[in-house]
Amino acid sequence: MSTIALRTFTSDDVDRYSRLLHALSRRDVRTRYFSWSAPASPAEIRAAMLGKDTVAGIAAHDSSGALIGVAQASRCSEGKFEIGVLVAESHRLRGIGGRLVDALLEKARIAGYSDAIAYSMMPNPAVEAVLRKRGFRASLTGQGIYRWCLRR
User: Fold this and answer.
1) Are 74 and 67 contacting, i.e. CB atoms less than 8 angstroms apart?
2) Is the backbone peptide bond immediately before 42 cis, with ω within 30 degrees of 0?
3) What is the mean pLDDT of residues 23-50?
4) pTM for this prediction
5) From the candidate CATH numbers 3.40.630.30, 3.40.1620.10, 3.30.420.480, 3.30.70.3490, the one assigned to the domain spanning 5-150
6) Tens of pLDDT along 54-102?
7) Which end of the chain is more exposed for a tag (fewer CB within 10 A), N or C?
8) Is residue 149 within 8 Å of 117, Cβ to Cβ?
9) β-strand partners of 145
10) Distance CA 27, CA 116 (A)
């Protein structure tokens, strides 16, 4: 198993993230973005990962330096942030998503944020396990979309 390194997402990661998004299947895009298209242009990625409302952006790289996952936390209201996590299909179910969520939660805590929100489409057992293990609770918002909340 290769070593996975987590670090702050930088502008150097934008093109790599775009390639990661373009490699997603239509089903993956629908499941993760609740849309048939992902925010894959460099401008959209910069806005999401490095924009003014970004609390934290984390990149996961394997031992060869390839980008295999990203996580992002955005300010959504006073003291609250929304998280999003994406792991390359080839690296799923190895604990990388959990490590990315943990890193986001820690960076957000340091920045003064306490409550987190995430969204998922069910069923997604891997996402459910990662979020439940960290204390998130789910409620159905409609159309198969769940809102996960963590209050600390």
Assistant:
1) no
2) no
3) 72
4) 0.88
5) 3.40.630.30
6) 999 999 999 999 999 999 998 987 778 999 888 988 898 899 999 999 9
7) N
8) yes
9) 121, 142
10) 26
